[in-house]
Design brief:
single chain; alpha/beta; about 30% helix; eight-stranded mixed sheet; D-Amino Acid Oxidase, Chain A, domain 2; FAD/NAD(P)-binding domain; about 425 residues
């Protein structure tokens, strides 16, 4: 960190997080070696690693809106690796390791902050699961430990630790590796690097259909014309099922809204991320002072990014139970994304039933955390046609041979 600060202080052009990367407008060609459907963080990361590590640069990213304007723009920027299974822990662990160095790699500040995450236990059952989870994390190189009330108060002095509440706090899971990053800066950094090496980003370009012949997608239909393609990757977050159906693929996914809200800025009060799965709420204070508050997915499938008073009331009540002084804070705005949830709460990555069509889907509430490692492993698969070991457990075929990777209960608040 001191070295990075020196480079920032004395360098003329080092780090430019305040600059919004705007893709250069180019004419849509009639064919590309690789077409990526979707223009969020995962799509930009796939293009970045294809161009940087594999020399593949005849790439078109097709985004129906604007770069990073979907779920990338609607998440709460939480980064962590304290998952439940060996497959999940190692995957997100490697993603966090990539996040640590992205600002240096991009020459573009993603505002990465290693702040740690504190998950609260309100029952004996939660404590038992935290102990198991901590041991699994440590086994695979992720820093997690169960801490008592005294340690919790030292980490978060303003947290209400009392018996005089509905659900008293009994212990906590301290994930020292947890942190945050600026979500739009992440997608801008990946997109900028990919475009500098030849990839093209086409905004306001909606995919309307796919031409399939035999076991291949031969062209992608858009509102700007048809594009012949060598390989196609879909990375469209909450719209995964709809886009896959264009290729004749049914995915085991349901889509749910996920809401969050943010307060006006206040002086620094909370350093770690604090979450309570029992209360279905998590809180983090941004570097600008805003309190970001999120919770669980809506309880019914819906393709909508509308906000609801019901969720606002539920999040407010849970937050005030943990931090009574929050009742004095003013809510600035509320928003929602749409999440594509799989039965085992793990992503679907890799090959599809079509030989040249690849899936980057089923990310639910944890897609932002996986942005770098998803891009890196998907790029390796596309370039070499070999499935990386890290990605292999998340194949679509696991739902046929009953080898699911169950991460139910591993999120900060959603389930």
């Amino acid at each position: 960190m001191p070295f990075n600060l020196l480079k920032y202080g004395f360098g003329d052009k080092y780090y430019a997080a305040e600059e919004h990367f705007t893709p250069r407008e180019t004419k849509l060609k009639s064919s590309y070696d690789v077409v990526i459907i979707g223009g969020g963080g995962h799509a930009a990361a796939i293009a970045y690693y294809l161009t940087k590590e594999h020399g593949i640069n005849d790439i078109a990213i097709l985004e129906k809106g604007y770069l990073g304007g979907g779920n990338t723009a609607r998440n709460t920027a939480v980064l962590r690796a304290n998952y439940l299974t060996e497959e999940g822990i190692t995957f997100y662990r490697d993603s966090m390791r990539l996040y640590h160095n992205l600002s240096d790699e991009f020459g573009y500040n993603i505002l990465w902050e290693n702040r740690g995450q504190l998950t609260l236990a309100h029952s004996d059952g939660a404590i038992r699961s935290f102990r198991w989870r901590a041991e699994m994390n440590k086994e695979f190189g992720v820093q997690s430990e169960v801490i008592d009330l005294k340690e919790i108060k030292e980490l978060v002095p303003l947290l209400r630790v009392s018996d005089d509440v509905r659900f008293p706090i009994l212990a906590g899971l301290w994930h020292k590796d947890g942190g945050t990053a600026r979500h739009d800066a992440v997608v801008w950094g990946f997109a900028k690097g990919a475009c500098e090496r030849g990839a093209e980003i086409h905004q306001l370009t909606e995919v309307t259909g796919l031409d399939v012949e035999g076991d291949k997608v031969v062209s992608v239909k858009t509102n700007r014309g048809d594009i012949k393609c060598g390989k196609v990757i879909q990375a469209v977050a909450g719209n995964s099922s709809d886009v896959a159906r264009m290729a004749g693929i049914d995915l085991p996914i349901h889509t749910f809204p996920l809401q969050a809200m943010v307060t006006q800025p206040y002086k620094p009060l909370i350093s770690p991320l604090v979450s309570s799965p029992h209360l279905h709420v998590y809180i983090q204070q941004t570097s600008r002072g805003e309190m970001v508050i999120g919770g669980g997915s809506d309880p019914y499938p819906l393709y909508s990014t509308r906000s609801s008073l019901e969720l606002k009331e539920a999040l407010s009540a849970a937050t005030i139970e943990l931090f009574p002084f929050f009742k004095e804070l003013n809510i600035l705005r509320q928003w929602a994304g749409i999440t594509d949830m799989t039965p085992d709460y793990s992503p679907i990555m890799g090959r599809s039933p079509l030989s040249n069509y690849y899936l980057d889907a089923g990310w639910g509430t944890w897609g932002f955390k996986a942005t770098p490692i998803s891009g890196k492993t998907m790029a390796e698969l596309i370039a070499t046609d070999k499935v990386p070991d890290l990605m292999a457990p998340f194949a679509l075929s696991r739902f046929d041979d009953f080898t699911q990777v169950s991460e139910a209960g591993a999120t900060a608040a959603s389930h």
